Amino acid sequence: MIPIVYYLALAVILFALGILGVLLRKNAIVVYMSLELMFNSANLVFITFANYFKVLDGQAMVIFAMTTAAAEVAIGLALMVMIFRVKGSIDIDQMNHLKG
Amino acid sequence: MSAGLVVFIILAVIAVAAAVAMLLSNNTLYSALYLIMNFIALAVIYLLLGAPFVALAQVTVYAGAIMILFLFVIMVLGAEKFSEKEPLKWQRPIAILLGLALVGEGVYALLNRVGTALVANPATAEMTDPKALGVLLYSKYSLPFEITSILLLASVVGVVVLTRGGKKEQKP
Questions:
Q1: Does A99 score more than 90 pLDDT?
Q2: CATH no. for B7-80
């Protein structure tokens, strides 16, 4: 049998990689994909503990998290398209027009 | 070493490697494809944990719908490559350092507080039943379910409003 700490460690590693993606990359779409990676690592923790405690609630939570992620991606990508239309680039370092 | 552990290690290596490749790839399109690979590896891990419905939802919703949306937007905007030069020179090393610190801290806390004594349960019939999950969603979680549907409706309206284009209203 597999200890649950392995699953949790995998989730930690994926979450940290997601954070590194947000911090290191300048392409806004890759930053969004890193956010998805973090969502997924959280889902992995939910599923792991649903399995460990033998309850289905964790799986239900993952369904909700997925739906929220889908809504968030749709809005985020629409924003990206609009920013690209206005500025001609999705480099996040150039999104500084609100700077005082 | 049991067969399940071997499968898990292979899947974990694939998932981490795909995530690293996503971060390092210069082409946005390849990043999206690597992320799909990561999602599918995670879906198989969900199968190992006895959650087949969530695993298939992961493949259809994440690897299917969401990533196709990403690919579509990348194609529309053009997979542009711009210089990844960072204006703040000290930011990159600090980010990598802090990321590694987070991993070390998390793994240390897990090994200390959880330990390897707790093992995952083998999949049972009532835990893997999609019908039980559906009943749970429509009974105990019916209010969050409805709120989620309103959230989806709001996002649909938001996307339509955002992408309608900045055309001025033409007077008749």
A1: no
A2: 1.20.120.1200
